[in-house]
Amino acid sequence: MEEVIKIEGGHSLSGTVRVSGSKNATVALIPAAILAHGPVTICGVPNISDVRSLSVLLKELGIEVIRKGEDILIIDPSQMKNMPMVSDTVGKLRASYYFMGALLGKYGHVEMKMPGGCYLGPRPIDLHVKGFEALGATVHYEHGTYIIDAKELTGNKIFLDISSVGATINIMMAAVYAKGRTTIENAAKEPEIIDVATLLNKMGAKIRGVGTNVITIDGVDYLNGCFHEIIPDRIEAATYLVLAAAAADDVTVENIIPQHLESLLSKLHEIGIRMEIGIDYVKVMGRDELHATDIKTLPYPGFATDIQQPLTALLTQANGQSIVTETIYQERFKHCHELNKMGANINVMSPSAMINGPTPLTGCEVVATDLRCGACLVIAGLLAEGVTTIHEIYHIDRGYDNLDGKLNALGAKLWREVIE
Ligand code: EPU
Predict the structure, then answer these.
(1) Is 88 in the pocket of ligand 1 (CB under 6 A)?
(2) Is 338:374 a contact under the CB 8 Å cutoff?
């Protein structure tokens, strides 16, 4: 028995869609909340399975978690216990690794099995480990489990060889209680990192420089509870913008921060999409002929790797050859194979994919091999003639809040079926 998503393509979309709180911020904010000694209330929490998995992990640590209304999560770590994190839930998502930094920062001891997440090629965590060690921790990896210990954490200067989002956030969390000043150089600058630092600072941390490539953290003795509202999800917003560019005459994507999407908006403009950009919305007003373009994924503010997959579905409809070059995850091209099943003409020669368009797409059976591959296939399904059946949709449900409801409200024909 398997649940699949089916999409009948060819319907023109219109209306307004509201973007939810950022998944990649949320999955770091939830572990960050455990550094507090009182309740942390987070507002704008998306209803996605990654949040449900993190809530299970919180409960395993003896933390009270209350879901209030549609999008509020109250996390009360005052009675928490530092238990080994070895349940199967740890392996369900990548973001489990944020408990490493948080537990190390709070207790000086962590036992955690290898985190999971989408397979995008090798995803090492050596930079996280290097950061923990620079703060004075010892890290052992035995039988699939990390054991991290520190009698005392002391601030240090840490240079990241690669501007890693995960390492930047994890080191920030480990350093909030460390003695003295920690400096992270070549830090990542993604908006989600700013959001996590904002939460920690509201709790009483002293973090400066987020959003630049040098972050300083002055250790404190105590963090209290607070209230925080999550930033809108720029990747979900991008998905709806690309989807609107592919299949709509008039769709407004609201609750977005256009500044977070500049690299995408300029590409959409370049390929021929008509848009109106407001303070917190973007209205997509259709297109004439689509022009091919080249894209190179880069750390923020460059073109996000998470957006190249959905955009590739749109580029199958552009005139000429587009080249997508992936510099973050060189194996992040499984969606191209699925698009080819639907009639696309894409040649993958890692680290690039050559998309020759325009090609009509036809609905068929495809597999969401990872979260953003799933988003790409939803867009392709909306464009295709006939019905597209998407398998392994648990990947999509990890990161898209109410995808079915949002799309059907725009006039799409998308439904779920349980098949043998
Ligand atoms: N890297 C290392 N060593 C490390 C850490 C990273 O070599 O210790 C490499 C990675 O292999 C990759 C590059 O550095 O080549 C960047 O990785 P980064 O650490 O920035 O990625 P991440 O923190 O694991 C987050 C998002 C991803 C997003 C990337 C890049 C979360 C939970 N995940 O992953 O989001 O693609 O940043 O922006 O925030 C998604 O949303 O679908 C997704 C995969």
Answers:
(1) no
(2) no
pLDDT digits (tens, 9 = 90+) for 185-195: 999 999 999 99
pLDDT band for position 122 (50/70/90)?
confident
Long-range contact pairs involving 210-215 (C-beta distance under 8 Å, separation at least 24):
212/187, 213/163, 213/185, 213/186, 213/187, 213/189, 214/183, 214/184, 214/185, 214/187, 215/168, 215/172, 215/183, 215/184, 215/187
The separation between the first and the last C-alpha atoms of the chain, rounded to the nearest angstrom, is: 4
- pLDDT tens by residue, 145-175: 999 999 999 999 999 999 999 999 999 999 9
CA angle 25, 268, 277 (to 5 degrees): 70
Q: Determine the residue of 20, 23, 24, 158 to mutate for testing ligand 1's pocket, defined as the one with the most ligand atoms within 8 A of the Cβ atom.
A: 24
Please tell me if the CB atom of residue 191 comes closer than 6 angstroms to any atom of ligand 1. no
- Report CA(130)–ligand 1 centroid distance (Å): 16
- At residue 92, the pLDDT reads 85
pLDDT-based confidence at residue 286 (cuts at 50, 70, 90): confident
Which residue of 48, 96, 164 sits with most ligand 1 atoms within 8 Å of its CB, as the best mutation to test the pocket? 164
Question: 410 pLDDT exceeds 80?
Answer: yes
- Whether 123 has a pLDDT exceeding 90, the answer reads no
pLDDT of residue 114: 86
Q: Which two tokens mark 400? A: 């898209």
Domain boundaries, the chain: 2-20+232-419, 23-229
- What is the DSSP-derived secondary structure letter of residue 114? P
pLDDT at 121 exceeding the cut of 90? no
Is 23-229 a CATH 3.65.10.10 domain? yes
Q: Sort residue 69 into left (φ over 0), alpha (ψ -120 to 50) or beta.
A: left
Identical fold, 2-20+232-419 and 23-229: yes
Going by pLDDT thresholds of 50, 70 and 90, the confidence category of residue 112 is very high
Kindly give the distance from the C-alpha atom of residue 263 to the centroid of ligand 1, in angstroms, as a whole number: 18
> Does the beta carbon of 94 sit less than 6 angstroms from any atom of ligand 1?
yes
Q: For domain 2-20+232-419, which CATH number applies: 3.65.10.10, 3.40.47.10, 3.40.50.300, 3.30.950.10? A: 3.65.10.10
Task: Report how far residue 350's alpha carbon sits from residue 330's, in angstroms, rounded to the nearest whole number.
Answer: 6
The count of residues in the chain is 420
Q: Cα of 331 to ligand 1 centre, how many Å?
A: 13
